[in-house]
Amino acid sequence: MTHALSTHLFVNHRLTVALLSRIQTAGIPAVEIFCARQHLDYHNKEQIAELGHWFRDSELKLHSLHSPMFNDEIWGRSGPHAVVTLTEPVKSLRLHMVDEIKRALEISEVIPFKYLIQHLGVSNEEFDLRKIDAAFSALEELSLFARQRGVQILLENIPNELSSSDRLLQFEELTHMGLDFALDTGHAHMAEGVETAFNRMKDRIRSTHIHDNNGKDDSHLFPLVSEGGTIDWKNTMQLLRSRENQYPLLLELKERPDVPNPLELVKEIFTRLENA
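The chain above was modelled as a monomer; its predicted structure follows.
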């Protein structure tokens, strides 16, 4: 399978050409950049221009961009106003959030990429048809903006009542937007299970987020090497290989202070997964 790495692994550090060079040197052919402003400030034209210049001369490909979850540089700790969510029912507030995501999409004008990975709501959010209507309105505008720049929006399954695999399919049935999906193994493991989520979503999966957890905490553990992970990787890889031409094997991991050289471990994980 094609391999890719999310820069979520380094999200607490500024994204630089030096970091991207390290990823390329590790033999990883593609990345997903995580839009958190302490990492990639999508409002900062100088940072985007510097990265764009590097990508133009690089073999490393930008596969996808993860849509912003917060508009501050401290993971939303500046207050509720920092949350970026498409399910905001107040139109005036939601439009500000849509504009925030548009700023991230504009990166494609400098660094082309194929997919924007988008959440519906936030973790543990309850189901509400008004929130579905809000998300539909936001995604109509964002999808048009994205398509004009050659980008496709993918909805990711996340641990809430709006974004399980069956809810994503229901959203598509209600809206007929034709959106495809990003399968997150860790999130599926916390909900309906990886196999159930895969079988429901499989026709529309275009990207992945591969990570492990204990079935309760969204800890983004390193598959097959971290203690506490309980995903059946042999079965999961068998499922993923059944449609391997649809998507890459894209690791979305959390930084570990006890791992001084995470890229070496990433290479080992790819090998172990392929041999599972």
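The radius of gyration is 18 Å.
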